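Researcher: I'm comparing several assemblies side by side, and this is the next one on my list. It has 226 residues spread over two chains. Same procedure as the others: predict the full complex and return the structure.
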Amino acid sequence: DVKVTQSSRYLVKRTGEKVFLECVQDMDHENMFWYRQDPGLGLRLIYFSYDVKMKEKGDIPEGYSVSREKKERFSLILESASTNQTSMYLCASSLIGGGQETQYFGPGTRLLVL
Amino acid sequence: GENVEQHPSTLSVQEGDSAVIKCTYSDSASNYFPWYKQELGKRPQLIIDIRSNVGEKKDQRIAVTLNKTAKHFSLHITETQPEDSAVYFCAARTGSLGRLYFGRGTQLTVWP
């Protein structure tokens, strides 16, 4: 069974704080993704990574950065948290192609920025 | 990039009725179309997918159809049950890296 875990289920931070969200997968997947989920807006891709130290911008990268130093771990960083970054953050992982492209999601981190 | 539109945003049906959710995509090179179900408070999970070389796929009460010419695909749920109540997301993949472009989701409510 694929397991994707996220470091926190709930997080409360202050405006201007640096925030780290961590995601770990145990299935040796090449791809890892960070999404933001807001009501009515669906799943919006922030960043993804297809290999260690590689990253690609998604649709809403502004205000975020990522780090992938090891294959199993993908971190999302909010350099200076703002109230409009209050949201649910979902991590996902998948293999690349070969008919095994299913994305497996983590449980999500609900972030509140005050 | 790819643009996926999903309709309707909300759908209410009586238990036992059928439900249909439709999505359109913009990039004719898209070749893989999964559907995810997200129950309240839970993570999205794949329920069915279809590739561009197939027109229809069924798995018990759910089916997906793909019309490449019109660039649209649909999810069909028959004999709906209250446990089908959830948000459903369609998605499309273009290219080889595995990035998915998601629709905005459909909140399906099945009334007993």
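Model: For your comparison table: The interface with chain B takes residues 30-31, 33, 40-45, 48, 50, 56, 58-59, 90, 94-97, 101-103, 105-108 of chain A (CB under 8 Å).
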